[in-house]
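ingest -> fold -> write
write: protein_1
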Amino acid sequence: MKTKKRVFALLLTAMMVFAMSGMGFTADNTADGERYESITPLREQTSPEALIAALAALAALPVSNDTTQADIMAAVEGAITNPNLQAWWATSGIIFDLTPATRSTPGHIMGTIHLGFAPPTVDDVVIVNIPIPTFTPPIITTYNAPNGTIGDSYEFQFLATGSPVPTWHIVSGDLPSGLYLSGAGLLSGTPTTLGTFTFEVQATNILGTSWRTGTIEINFATGAAVNAPTVVGTPTTDSITVEATFAGANMGGQTIEFAVNTTSTTPTIGWQSSGTFAGLTPYTQYYFFARSAHNATHATGAASTGTAIRTYCQHDMSSTWTVRTAPTCTADGVEYRVCTICNGNEETRAIAALGHDLTGGAQTVIRHATCTVNGAVRTNCVRYAECGHYQINPTATYGHDMGAWSVTTSPTCTTAGVETRNCQVSGCDHVETRSIPALGHDFGAWTVTTAPTITTAGVETRTCTRCNTTETRAVAALSPNTYAVTQHFGTWSGTGTASATVNAPHANFVRLLLNGTAVAPANFTVTAGSTVITLNQAFLNTLSDGEYAFVAEFTSGTSQNINLTITSAESTPKTGAGTMILWIALSFSGMLGIAVMSKAKFAAKDPSRTI
């Protein structure tokens, strides 16, 4: 009990001294993003340096799931410089929540560190509570390494998430020769071997592993550029020697090779390291090419342009003449040329006198031309300073520069208009006038105002869009159609109705005729399908026994005869039909049968006539 009180008092005193000295402690390990906190730092005045050193060591200690008591003690003891001081870990407790199944859960390292002189006494005490951060398994995020070039420095950083920071390994396949992967994921080095390399890279921490497959292609470096060859010495009749230089830096240590062709086309074969070509045809032009040669690290370079060189000589005179004495307007000059191979065998020839050149000489206006009056201009020879020659020539009249036509009176459909234009030359008041033809009517489309029928012509009109003048014309009457009867009225025996069907459009039906006389609409009905005509019983009762021929009239034609036969069991005449009617029907039945179609047409002239 006394010991506990002594420790408590000592702790309380140490806390007060520590607070008064302003030495409270909070440590941040910003590099790892982790915070370590000493909950109750205490010290005794006899050993403040040791306590400060111990706290600093704890602040710098990286904590992970693998941190142990021994790691903590090693860090503290390594910070004590006084050989008479000791540090030890109290048995009062260290707590780890670090089992593999719970490594994603933050844990804490807790315990008591004692500092003091040997033998151990209750001197300075540090109660440690260090939180362990949350850890996550790795996930590789950047792994598509670029291709490389043999002999060139290479560097690529693989990246992955995860805490603690994962380490990197190649677990299968091969890296390009000369490249190495560090534990931090940096792939670097200098490739030494051509080829395509496929490998599997792995990032690992205490919580897991992530894999990715990568492919890197190592290629030759681009060959150095080479200038076009130049001739060495003087060509002979059958051999030429050329040389060439690099156009820039030759970083790959390449050599230059040469080829020859009879045209300016780059050859694909015949490349050689020597610039001397023998066995050539005399007095023949060849094209010589150069390029950097393939070696262990660099590809064959692009061929230069061809240099045209002739074999000796038999004098190939230059096509270019050089002026030795320039000609003047009135005196000849002299020019010469030499052989293009040996620069000898000079030839000369005269250059004809130039004559006076007035086409590009300076001009001076002596008199300005107008629209109707000629002018005059003086033209000097282009070499006037040498020869003093000039010529005076007339200049043509301008002619009127007429402006755009402007309408002064607009034309109509039936009357002409007027337009004028003025000369644009300053001071000229010339005016021209011309007639604008009448526009003529601009009629729209014809519109039917009265539709034609089979008996009468129709009318259509159109109107001018500008002046509203109207024109009319007749529309020919329709040619009549004759529509087939698909069902006749048949035989009626005194009861019910009688129906017939005409193969004609129902909408075009006009009326029903019997012997040229219209049947009153009250005596029948008309329905669709094609056209169905039904005679009612009241009407049928008015007809005497016998045969009847009806005709249906439409706007577009008439039907064939629609036959009806009346037979009755009664001998008494029908209402409204006497002996006289029957006698008339029998007397004229032949005539009516012949003339039924003609009567149907004439009946249209008197539509009010009904029976």
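write: protein_2
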Amino acid sequence: MTADSPMASVRNLSTLGAALLLAACTSLPVPTVQPTTSPPATPPPSPSVAVASASASPRATPSPTEPGGGFGPGGETAANDFNPTVAPCDPFTPANLGPWSIYAASGFSAVVNGSSDVLAESHRVDVGISLNFGPINPQDSVNWATRSGTAVDGADFVGQSGNVTAVQGVGGTAISVELVDDAVAEPTESFFIDLTSATGQYPIGPCRTVEIGIWDNDFLSVDPLPPVFEGSGNSDRVLFVTARFAYPQPYPIDIRASTYPSSSNPAVEDEDYSFDRTSSYGTLRPGELSTSWGIDILGDDEVEPDEAFTFWIRAQNGGDLSFMVIDVTTNVTITDDDEPGATDIELSIGDGSGAEGTGFVSLPLTLSERYYFDLRVDFEVRDGTARLNDGYLITGGSVTIPGGEMSGEIRIPVADDQLDEPDETFTVVISTPGGVIVVRNRATGTILDDDYPPGIVIDQPSASEGAGKVRFVVSLTSASGKAVAVTYRTLDGTAMAGTDYTAQGVSNTVPCPVPPSGSSAYPCTLQFAPGTTAIAIDVPLLNDTTTEPTESFQVRLSNPINATLDVAQGSASITDDDGLVVVQESAASITYRKTWTTQSLAGALGGAVRYASVTRSKASLTFTGRRIEVLSTRGPDRGKVAILLDGVKVATVNLYSATLGPAAVVFTRDFAASGTHTITLKVLGSKDGRSSGARIDLDAFRYLK
């Protein structure tokens, strides 16, 4: 067989420790494998390398001294570091040339997946089976099976058996056996793969058994480390780290060490510890069991958290057999032993603010430099313009600034409301059990108001000229926590100042009345104290004896403070009462349907009203005249009423008002000529969204003949 032949290529690859992959050969058939026990479709994950010390762990990432090294945890490794009980058999030499043969790579008792480095136990061992003669028949096949030696089926390898059938024109094939990982330090073990029987025209040749050596990868560990304390000042200490083999190795082992920072609170080399890297490489001779390295732990007087670094060790068999690598690591924690006494570190609290809608006000805590222990800060909250439960919601508590941090915060929960109001403040006072100096112990928290101001509206009243006055009601759409103000003045319409009513606020020569929360200064001003939602303006009416149509004048609002103008002008209707007929609620001429109840009420014409809230309750009057008026009351529990004239609905009146007012005209209708009509009030049972009820009052009907 020449060096360029396919089978020679296979042998050359085997010599280099590559996977046993049989090359195609046109002159030699390669059988197909039919194992009775199939290996897993995907290998299980490689377990970690076992170590003796609880603080040591396997290294699954490249070492810091070899960036991108790419080596991971090892597994049980097929190797030739043992004395085989079966002599290696080369089926390609003339002396061993036979029909069916099984073989491993030359110089090795097995070759593993083409790797000359390290084998994870979840990988497999490949060996070759070949039929060296032809032609073949379809029935030509050979059986094979694994057999325990010092390596035990199930504990060290996955036992299998199978059948290989010859294929015309193909020279050979490979079979695979899985190795089992364990965490037991043990000597090299071996098992066997045998050709057990052949079927067909060819027998089994001399190379009928191969012995597989499994090199243990659990022999390296790190001795447990003693507690490591930092020391003080220039007092350095030496920590010895010892790597130990569980049993002697038959060949030299290259071993080296390095350090790298741990992920949490890393110790800094040459600041917290020192490692002489010139002594980090060495070789253990056959039979030697351990080696040690010294690490200088550098002392200081600084109060700081415990720090850590990782010590990394790699063992690799020397010489030409460089396919075995084992890494172990151990974590070294340097315990700080400096006493945390009084320091000159300063603590202060700063002012803070927050909108009430966010739910809290944050006040910053600041340290002048790092304090390496958790620092508890106690605080107390005191009233300013903000009050407990109305502004802020807690009286005090404590927070912790984590060790190593230079800042923190105190969050004070605050109440959120819908009231437009001034920004409010409170005071926070801090203290601490010790360890730092408090240089500013109090700060101001500000609750920023984020509510919209209320709107101002004015109603559209009416009154008969003989009533003596007409009342305008100016209301806020919501209560306010601020003082609200607005100015007003009267304006002529069809009603004229001096003839039909008395002007107000038109010049500094016309005095303003002094209404509740008002001012007599020009221009007339209404002032709403915080929480007040309505103020009435009474404008005097001038009576006459002239029959005339309904007239009107206006009150205009301007210059709002802490509010907006939603309805800036109200118009008052003055109805003529010459020839006016008043029909009180108790009159027999009024027809009531369903439930109406009489109630005494100050401000009613006759001192009483009738009211109903049941839907479809009705009150009707038939009259002969040219104008009709309905007198009722407005209030916070009033609803909506339908007005019908001669059976036809002509209006719906909303009787809601934020405050209860006196009886007044709520509906007026003029006719072109005097005639007979029927007016009906119908309770709808509905209400304004702000009202608490649907009550309807009837004080009186009034009509002009």
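write: annotation protein_2
The CA atoms of residues 29 and 170 lie 3 Å apart.
Confidence is low (pLDDT under 50) at residues 1-81, 105-122.
pipeline exit 0
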